[in-house]
Amino acid sequence: MEFHTEFKPLTVQPQEIEARSFEMITEELGPHSFTEEQYPVVQRVIHASADFELGRSLIFHKDAIRAGIEAVRSGKIVVADVQMVQVGISKPRIEKFGGDVRVYISDPDVMAEAKRLDTTRAIVSIRKAVKEAEGGIFAIGNAPTALLELIRLVKEGAAKPGLVIGVPVGFVSAAESKEELAKLDIPFITNVGRKGGSPVAVAAVNAISLLADR
């Protein structure tokens, strides 16, 4: 059985679709206070989410973009909180500089330790990640507990991330974890409120790696 529709796409060329999407985003976003180096991240987050409110709610530490670019170019590890984030990140640009994208949440030792401590795998995965990814980019799109644990370890001097992209989505502790991140004087990208998620974390990392590859 065949189905027909009156609608025809403006173009089926991938590059043209992306270019036109970015033009539309710029037109609809209008005046904003983001810097020239921050705007590509905002643009890709809106492109991934079709959510202008989310895009406008992004907050950048003054050194965030520079630190992210340096981390990529130095071949630092990118830590994803969940597999969905890991899968979405464009690995060739990370690997080009000697880096890697890793996720620890399903490691057998992490799962066993979380069960022993009766806590979340996200928390235990961050404890493992900070030991292997000093100076790396931590991309957290789903687990507020992971972000809060990372913040705790930073405050204690046990974690030294190059950049924290903290945009967990949800109702329990998501907005609050981002508020806590925004208080730290380390390079970070976050947003205000409950919105966020894997596509947002992925879009931010990919925007950073594109800037690093230029």
Question: What does this 3D model show about the protein?
Answer:
- With 214 residues, the chain is an alpha/beta fold.
- The chain is built from eleven helices and six strands.
- It has a six-stranded mixed sheet, sandwiched between helices.
- Helix 4 crosses helix 11.
- The longest helix is centred in the N-terminal third of the chain and has 16 residues.
- It is globular and about 60 Å long.
- The chain starts with 13 loop residues before the first helix and ends with a helix.
- The model has no long low-confidence stretch (mean pLDDT 95).
- Structural class call reads alpha/beta
- The strand order across the widest sheet is 1-6-5-4-2-3
Terminal residue distance: 48 Å
Topology as H/E string?
Answer: HHHEHEHHEHHEHEHEH
- Report the C-alpha radius of gyration, rounded: 18 Å
Morphology call:
globular
Number of β-strand runs = 6
* Spans of at least 5 consecutive residues with low confidence: none
Overview features:
214 residues; alpha/beta; six-stranded mixed sheet; 6 strands
Write the layout of secondary structure elements.
Blueprint: H1 14-29, H2 39-49, H3 52-56, E1 58-60, H4 64-73, E2 77-80, H5 83-88, H6 91-96, E3 100-103, H7 108-117, H8 121-132, E4 137-140, H9 144-155, E5 163-166, H10 174-181, E6 188-191, H11 198-213
Parallel strand pairs: 2-3, 2-4, 4-5, 5-6
Antiparallel strand pairs: 1-6
Helix pairs in contact: 1-2, 2-11, 4-11, 7-8, 8-9, 9-10
